[in-house]
Design goal:
This protein has one domain. It is built from three helices and no strands. The chain has helices at about 20-40, 45-50, 60-70. α1 (about 20-40) runs antiparallel to α3 (about 60-70). The mean pLDDT is about 85.
């Protein structure tokens, strides 16, 4: 069974933050992307179908989990 966490909201660096804070936020978002990608890739086609997903959607879903909320400021 897969669990999805909404950690992207807590990872964004505040505006005007230093270079290191922005780098830290960027690395954290990438880790969320890789973790989501790895967890979804480990599922079988049957388990993905139960979640209403197809294997071709995995990268897009992982990207939206990690980056989309950070871009919209949510």
């Amino acid at each position: 069974m897969a669990f999805i966490s909404d950690t992207a909201n807590s990872i964004s660096a505040p505006k005007g933050a230093g270079v290191f804070a922005q780098l830290k936020a960027r690395v954290a978002r990438y880790r969320v992307y890789r973790t989501t990608l790895n967890e979804l890739s480990a599922l079988s086609n049957r388990e993905l179908a139960d979640l209403g997903m197809h294997r071709a959607q995995i990268r897009g879903i992982a990207w939206s989990v990690a980056y989309e909320n950070a871009l919209t400021g949510k």
